[in-house]
Design goal:
The chain is mostly beta strands. The protein has no helices and 16 strands. The chain has a four-stranded antiparallel β-sheet with strand order 1-2-3-4, with no helix packed on it.
């Protein structure tokens, strides 16, 4: 898709049979065995984060310059909920049990109940958030950003547990 420009983000579902690709103007879902496009959505801006929930039932997307994380039903494409923010959302990930979403907007992180959009915890780091994730057991959130620090947070309370100062922006965490 040369007309779309670069791939901004790509993600397999946990089952390995679906693959999401975000380009400058589209979100594409592929059927992995056939590599055929089975769903296509036009985006107003590139989605900076796309991911399947680990149970494969939902998709989270953000848009560059957009002020929300959108939660979609993976099978139907129906919007389930919209997680509204005050600033552009640059990162979003589901928890391992698929019940929560962590998002980064400006220098704030939010943990949301994925089905209702209820904020469970709010945290603040010293620079803009570029990346977020959950620990495999879902007990902790990791974040990083422009402040050159990786943070570990308690996923239930939002309390900072640890931080590590690095020598550059933290673009990815896992």
């Amino acid at each position: 898709y040369e007309e779309d420009g670069a791939i901004v983000e790509a993600h397999f579902n946990a089952q390995g049979d679906r693959f999401l690709v975000s380009t400058a103007s589209r979100l594409l879902m592929y059927d992995v065995p056939s590599w055929e496009i089975i769903d296509e959505r036009w985006l107003f801006a590139p989605s900076r984060a796309v991911s399947f929930s680990p149970d494969g039932t939902r998709i989270a997307t953000t848009s560059g310059g957009g002020l929300a994380v959108y939660i979609w039903a993976a099978q139907t494409g129906e919007e389930i909920t919209r997680l509204s923010h005050d600033h552009s959302v640059d990162a979003a990930k589901f928890s391992p049990d698929s019940k929560f979403v962590v998002s980064g907007s400006g220098n704030h992180l939010y943990i949301w109940e994925a089905m209702t959009g209820t904020v469970i915890a709010q945290m603040e780091q010293s620079g803009a958030v570029l990346s977020v994730g959950f620990s495999p057991d879902g007990k902790y959130v990791i974040s990083g950003g422009k402040d050159e620090i990786a943070y570990i947070w308690d996923a239930k309370t939002g309390k900072e547990i640890a931080r590590s100062e690095l020598n550059g922006p933290v673009y990815a965490v896992a």
